[in-house]
Target: Dyp-type peroxidase family
Amino acid sequence: MSGKTPTALQLDDIQRAVLSPRPTPYAATYLAFRVDDPAHGRELMRRASAVVTSAAEPVSPLGSTWVSVALTCHGLRALGVPEPALETFAWEFRQGMAARAKALGDVGESGPENWDAPLGTSAVHVVLLAVAPDATQLEAAIDRARPAYEQLAGVTAIWRQDCHTLPTEAEHFGYRDGISQPGIEGSGIAGSNPLQEPSKAGEFVLGYPDELGGVQSPQPAELGHNGSYVAIRKLHQRVGAFRRYLRDNATSPDDEELLAAKIMGRWRSGAPLALSPHHDDPALGADPDRRNAFLYQRDDPAGFTTPGGCHIRRANPRDATVAGEPRLHRMIRRGGVYGPPLPDGVLEDDGTDRGLMFTFVGAHLGRQFEFVQTQWMNDGVFFGANDARDPVTGNHDGTGTVTIPRRPLRRRLSGLPRFVVTRGGEYCFIPGLNALRWLGALTD
Model:
């Protein structure tokens, strides 16, 4: 679908967090604010525009450290954005994530009624994200941003979530994270898979042509152009339950690791089954130039090597023939670990809150984030597996199954419990730097 002429992105107007991968290792903090005084909220936007780093700056004033600012629909309304302008935003954004919970599979214990306050409520207006290589530099970034919101009586900090890198540089289930990212025309940042063409800029940044030739941008253009949508989700991980399920369904320690790889699609090191089907290869997993260079339809259409229902193949089918055109549903995914690790070998969860702060970035909340979540993660029809759900993140109730193709007989596991519980989330709009200034100049 991609054409031959690349789009020139206005990198100096795009927030760096939209396009730039996080440093490794990293520390991060999410801060949420409520705006009670529109004038103070606008002043916050003016100050933030001087703090936020653009995608054109290869090095920020604090090195590999940056601050980003995003707003919910409630936040735009609190600043005084006119209703006709709000109506030009994606309808999923206007509804908010909590209102979309049933469709997203956030039901039962994952339902908004059980989310960490104030996530999912009308009180969350502005979300500030600071990212740095370590905790010391993170605090420096927060200190640099603090004048932007302190001493504004009409702006109140109401929530904070700190994230970090585990010593293993993996997420709590033990897998290397953040491996696969799309290439974006005009960004200057290569995608992680050299076998796939970059996506059109309009798939991820508003105001540019997308894969279908359309241009999505809220109005007025001063507000929407060079912005993106962001979905933020706090996902609690039941590490003990995950380990116990693997142990209970494996025949040996080696089989346990193979089962873990078949469920995820990668070995713990990040080495993909597609390139190392029989054993882990830590050198491959650590090599960003090799660990993502593979396709499915060309090399493994039936899923005997990488099961069709495994986590990474569901989240990104690459070139596979599935319900839905994969290029139209690609996403920028970023994750930040929170909470301490569960000690090695422990098979019972200890009551500590640990998990992943998941962040989606894209221009289409509906056909990117929501489509993947509802059609690929929490359903199996797209690859012929009826109602089978993602074995790692699916909203299971203890009756789920996972099928692993193999010859001569497939392997089928049952009784999948819920390993991941949603603890909160927000749909946000991350404006361009000029849009931050536009918001700051609003009047009653």
